[in-house]
């Protein structure tokens, strides 16, 4: 898989470039992984509801064709966009999502942090009280509050067209988290969003992007 580090790029042209790449690829086109960060933007998924965007202020809202609901992107967040031919890779969408989340979990483990899945809520979460606690979550989490004691550190939203993937995942490294208070993140009112910096991990974007890229490259291989 060819890994491209794009730097800081506007969201909409990147989205359009992913669509163009996917529409133009053929069975011999190599898979790619794009790593980048975006200026502040809210993106709304296909399942998104307008009332989950509370007060966007001066931050633009872009409608997309990915799954999921509204989230925020901004500087200090690693965006990972795998452009994969799933048919050639030999696994299905459910396995693809699992591998994406596993790459984030292993990236967090590199920094000593334990990432957790929450059933029915794609993405990766950490314990707010002790993100370095390696014990498993109580199974199941309380039905009335599945996010009790948790903060979201990675969001996931994908699109699969003719077995080809685009969009991807976000890993919060060291960013301005205030815009998350302007939305119901991923459609969940009151869901707290965190980054590596706020839970006590000091690293830079380039390092985190490198670690995440290595794990994605390894886990998304056929």
Radius of gyration: 16 Å
N-to-C terminal Cα separation, in Å? 10 Å
Q: What sort of overall outline do the alpha carbons produce when their principal axes are compared?
A: globular
Measured as a percent range, the helix fraction is: 10-25%
| Strand element count | 10
What would you give as the CATH superfamily?
Answer: Bira Bifunctional Protein, Domain 2
Tally of domains:
1
Level-1 CATH class name: Alpha Beta
Which strand order do you get reading across the main beta sheet? Answer: 1-2-6-10-9-8-7
Number of contiguous helices: 4
Order of helices and strands: EHEEEEEHHEEEEH
- CATH architecture field: 2-Layer Sandwich
Detail the poorly predicted runs.
none
Sheet-strand content, in percent, reads 25-35%
Write down the CATH topology. BirA Bifunctional Protein, domain 2
**On the 0-100 scale, what is the average pLDDT?**
94
Structural class: alpha+beta
Largest sheet: 7 strands, mixed
Structure description:
With 222 residues, the protein is α+β, with helices and mostly antiparallel strands. The protein has a single domain (2-219), classed as Bira Bifunctional Protein, Domain 2 (BirA Bifunctional Protein, domain 2). Helix content is 23%, strand content 27%. It has four helices and ten strands, in the order E-H-E-E-E-E-E-H-H-E-E-E-E-H. The strands form two sheets. A seven-stranded mixed beta sheet has the order 1-2-6-10-9-8-7. Strands 4-3-5 form a three-stranded mixed beta sheet, with no helix packed on it. Helix 3 packs across helix 4. The longest helix is centred in the middle third of the chain and has 18 residues, at 93-110. It is globular. The termini are close together.
């Amino acid at each position: 898989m060819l890994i491209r580090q794009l730097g800081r790029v506007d969201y909409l042209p990147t989205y359009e470039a992913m669509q163009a790449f996917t529409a133009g690829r053929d069975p011999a086109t190599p898979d790619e992984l794009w790593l980048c960060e975006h200026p502040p933007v809210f993106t709304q998924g296909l399942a998104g509801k307008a009332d989950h965007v509370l007060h966007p202020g001066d931050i633009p809202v872009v409608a997309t064709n990915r799954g999921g609901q509204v989230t925020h992107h901004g500087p200090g967040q690693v965006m990972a966009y795998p452009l994969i031919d799933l048919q050639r890779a030999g696994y299905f969408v459910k396995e693809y999502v699992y591998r994406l989340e596993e790459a984030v979990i292993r990236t967090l483990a590199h920094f000593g942090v334990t990432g957790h899945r929450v059933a029915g809520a794609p993405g990766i979460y950490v314990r707010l009280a002790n993100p370095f606690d390696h014990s498993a979550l109580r199974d199941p989490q309380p039905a009335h509050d599945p996010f009790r004691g948790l903060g979201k550190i990675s969001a996931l939203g994908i699109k699969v067209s003719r077995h080809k993937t685009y969009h991807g995942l976000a890993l919060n490294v060291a960013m301005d988290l205030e815009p998350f208070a302007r939305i119901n993140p991923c459609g969940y009112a009151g869901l707290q969003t965190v980054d590596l910096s706020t839970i006590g991990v000091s690293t830079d974007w380039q390092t985190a992007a490198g670690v995440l890229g290595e794990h994605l490259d390894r886990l998304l291989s056929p």
